[in-house]
Amino acid sequence: METKIIDGKAISAQIKEEVKAQIENLKKEGREVALAVIQVGADPASSVYVGNKKKACAYVGIKSLAYELPEETSEEELLALIDKLNKMETCDGILVQLPLPKHINEDKVIEAIDPRKDVDGFHTQSVGALCIGQPGFVSCTPAGIIELLKRSGVAIEGKECVVVGRSNIVGKPMALLLLRENGTVTVAHSRTKNLKEICRRADILVVAIGKPKFIDHEYIKEGAVVIDVGIHRNENNKLCGDVDFEDVKDMCSAITPVPGGVGPMTIAMLMYNCLHSAQMQQGM
Ligand code: NDP
User: Fold this and answer.
1) By CB atoms within 10 Å of each CB, which of 6, 12, 59, 92 scores lowest?
2) Does residue 147 sit in the same domain as residue 253?
3) 193 vs 282: which has the higher pLDDT
């Protein structure tokens, strides 16, 4: 059996082209799309993520409003900025790069974002809407995984889907999205018993645990589709995922590599969410 390597780079590029074309159409109608990107402090990893998001905005034609605030910014000051951006008609999306410095309550900050501008999909209203099947923004990484599956021709309906990991930004929304697509979903986590057996039931296995190369061939059913969300640097400074790619790939019908699988989808979906926010505000 030939294993399909799911090309997240190509699929994310395709999504960005689609977004770019629609942004151009909006511009012709005199409507500019803008995303506020807020970073507090100068954590180097956050600076890389923020830089990549700004680059993607520039590419698709979204105006990025950059707010680089000092580490000592108070919670009050940050909340005041969010309030200002909530009211700003020319701002379609608000993104607060996490983690925030310890003296700022992240939950409080996320709750302060107007759900109509919550392009990260982290607000409780967005999560609640996803849970009961109402429209709202969906967390970018799991939304990107659904796009990867659909655009690779992987049917979800009726499939046994196992999600390993139950974080608020990946595992839980992933499980809800697979359920929305009519998969039969099991969520596993660090207290799960018989993890190998449960994973071996999966037609579609999504792994988001944050442990390098944790999933090997003993966790895989022949012919499964494997989606690896993890991202790590190994001892040789090379990127690897939560799945031992070389060990499992020949057993899978399809698999995402690291890098070049799930990773590039997150920003593409952020761009998609910004476009969607502007379209909603236009009443489209
Ligand atoms: P978290 O650390 O928030 O969550 C990890 C989850 O995995 C938890 O639910 C935990 O269970 C579970 N887990 C940990 N160890 C085991 C184990 N041995 N067996 C079963 N379950 C286990 O991580 P995230 O969801 O934020 O991220 C996961 C990975 O994905 C990371 O490597 C991260 O870097 C990467 N990532 C990649 C993104 C991308 O764009 N490609 C975006 C976001 C994340 P419990 O709840 O019981 O503690």
Assistant:
1) 59
2) yes
3) 193
**Where residue 162 sits, what CATH number does that domain have?**
3.40.50.720
Pocket flag, ligand 1, residue 258 (CB < 6 Å): no
Say how many domains are in the chain: 2
Per the structure, the complete domain to which residue 201 belongs is given by 140-263
125 has catalytic annotation = no
| Whether residue 126 has pLDDT greater than 90 | yes
* Whether 120 is catalytic: yes
Can you tell me the distance from the alpha carbon of 244 to that of 262, in angstroms, rounded to the nearest whole number? 15
How many CB atoms are closer than 10 A to CB 135?
Answer: 10
Alpha-carbon span 29 to 1, nearest angstrom = 50
Give the sign of the dihedral formed by CA 23, CA 25, CA 27, CA 32.
Answer: negative
Please indicate, yes or no, whether the overall pTM of this predicted structure exceeds 0.90: yes
Q: Which of 16, 53, 117, 172 is catalytic?
A: 53
Q: Which two tokens stand for residue 181?
A: 């697509």
